[in-house]
Amino acid sequence: MRARLSDIAQQAEVSEATVSRVLNDRPGVAPETRQAVLTALDVLGYERPARLRKRSAGLVGLVVPELDNPIFPAFAQIIESALAPTGYTPVLCTQTPGGVREDEYVEMLLDRQVSGIVFVSGLHADTAADHDRYRTLLARPLPIVMINGYAPGIPAPFVSCDDRESAELAVAHLVALGHRRIGLITGPDRFVPVQRKVAGYKAAMERLTDITSDELTELTELSLFGVEGGEAAAGRLIERGVTGLVCGSDLMALGAIRAARQRGLSVPGDISVVGYDDSPLMAFTDPPLTTVRQPVAAMAVAAVRALVDEINGHPSPNSEYLFRPELVVRGSTAVTRPADPPKRQRPTTPNPTPSLPIPA
Q1: For residue range 140-153, what is the model confidence (pLDDT) as tens digits?
Q2: Residue by residue, what is the 3-state secondary structure of the chain?
Q3: Which of 95, 130, 173, 303 has the highest CB neighbour number within 10 Å of its CB?
């Protein structure tokens, strides 16, 4: 033991007495010094005493949609990082079309006796879904927190990006660049974030342009989320003469860019495109995508804090916390090209009448 203490002390650059106090979990050692000794244990290959091993506070379920959209792995990663200091371990449940459904995941999580569940863009965002499933969980009682989507009447914390403002930011940006005929591409209208984006788009267009309400209906395309859905919707709007597109996700925006190029149009030369999410790698697309950023880090940390507080018996107010989006301008938007002016014919001036000398 004497040799071991000296090795650890030398590695941590502290005294053997300090090492002894740390190993016996005694007070009087600064946190940074204690961490240096524990790190020295790990480096030298010594097993930490049982009293110093970090115990798991329990499991937390994390239910997210498919991971094809990079914004969902971003949420999962930050939620996991935010949970780590609290001692809770996330159990990641990802949904795929035709795969395990949300309710089935919840049953699996309950069997594992999770301490709480975080739902990201789940059925709580679907106005056509039965939300009694969440009331049943709360009645157990089981703490839950929901991200992106709101269901009235459920006494739980909701964390959302302000989707209405995100659409208004995108429209205002395109209008400032001279665009007037601006289309909106987003997902099915049964989802709360979609409804809010449509409302924000129409409000901004009515306020900033002279487009009529009938034209706004014609310029709004609801499609499937994803690249293919964005491409199909963009093709229809391009045929209707739009010069700018506001998209409900970055993936839909990439589909819109593909639709424009298939028609021989350039982005942003002929059509400007704005995405939504600012998911990873959007700064490296061709062109780099102008998008509206979700504050994923702030939202994820807030959701974790609310859940842990609920678990510890300090419930947060049961309301929706809205986080402000941020416009990130890159290379997919530009000043609109002026319409080609009609060719004007040169005015024909009549030959001047020769002046005649006036006789004296």
Answers
A1: 999 999 999 999 88
A2: CHHHHHHHHHHHCCCHHHHHHHHCCCCCCCHHHHHHHHHHHHHHCCCCCHHHCCCCCEEEEEEECCCCCCHHHHHHHHHHHHHHHHCEEEEEEECCCCCCCHHHHHHHHHHCCCCEEEEECCHHHECCCCCHHHHHHHCCCCCEEEECCCCCCCCCCEEEECHHHHHHHHHHHHHHCCCCCEEEEECCCCEHHHHHHHHHHHHHHHHHCCCCHHHHHHCEEECCCCHHHHHHHHHHHHHCCCCEEEECCHHHHHHHHHHHHHCCCCCCCCCEEEEEECCCCHHHCCCCCEEEECCHHHHHHHHHHHHHHHHCCCCCCCCEEEECCEEECCCCCCCCCCCCCCCCCCCCCCCCCCCCCCCC
A3: 303
